[in-house]
Design brief:
60s Ribosomal Protein L30, Chain: A, five-stranded mixed sheet, 17% strand, globular
């Protein structure tokens, strides 16, 4: 019974924040979610969002030792970081977009600019771009970082899994070498299991061969919730 009441309360809180966080785009008239409003309501949903966004949230937040972003400023901070990342990586082939319903930033590194085919050694010409990404992470320290490796379906499952893990580790280790705290970073390989395009076409396979960096800003409310859960 207690669990049922908790779920009902959680969904009610989520509904309240979702409704109150909607704004109207003045250019299109479209209703969309405001990241700033979501940030302001982060305290009520901290337990839900931490688990949903980053996995093992309490331990990671406490281990990273970050202070968090003031709730009302989290949307502004995300928008600013996205804009600066797009400017610093322009022309590199890297794609920067919001993800997780505006809760995080996704940095997509296509294989063609990051690694040679079948390799997990960074291409030398890409290191300057990854330096810019690391610099952004150091400039905005109140976030956790997930690095995910993906492949197309060519080759065996085992080969693709190992390649994806090695590529994710390579990127994560490089970010650490450039000063990003290792306690903020987690890497994981998914092999061919999470395609974003059709593996039956050359273009689809090219799009599926990628490394993704997910930057998850953490609010002060989430840090406080993690500390309370960790007691």
């Amino acid at each position: 019974m207690k669990k049922s009441r908790l779920l009902v309360s959680s969904f009610a809180a989520l509904s309240l924040v979702t409704v109150s966080a909607c704004v109207t785009d003045p250019n299109t008239g479209e209703r969309k979610v405001s990241r700033t409003a979501i940030g302001g309501g982060a305290g009520a949903l901290a337990g839900l969002l931490i688990g949903g966004l980053i996995g093992g949230g309490t331990g990671r937040i406490l281990g990273a030792g970050i202070g968090g972003i003031a709730g009302g400023a989290i949307g502004y901070t995300m928008d600013k970081q996205i804009r600066e990342l797009k400017e610093s990586t322009a022309g590199s082939g890297v794609d920067i977009t919001p993800t997780d319903n505006g809760q995080a930033i996704l940095v997509n590194l296509p294989e063609g600019v990051t690694f040679d085919v079948g390799s997990y050694t960074l291409r030398p010409e890409f290191r300057n771009t990854l330096d810019q990404i690391a610099q952004s992470m150091n400039q905005y320290p109140n976030s956790l970082i997930d690095v995910y490796g993906h492949t197309d379906s060519t080759g065996s499952d085992a080969y693709n899994q190992t390649l994806s893990e090695n590529r994710a580790s390579t990127v994560a280790n490089y970010l650490t070498m450039r000063g990003v705290a290792p306690s903020r970073i987690r890497s994981q390989g998914f092999g061919e299991t999470m395609p974003v395009a059709d593996n039956m076409t050359d273009d689809g396979r090219r799009r599926n061969r990628r490394v993704e960096i997910k930057i998850v800003p953490i609010s002060q409310e989430q840090v406080q919730a993690a500390r309370q859960q960790g007691q």
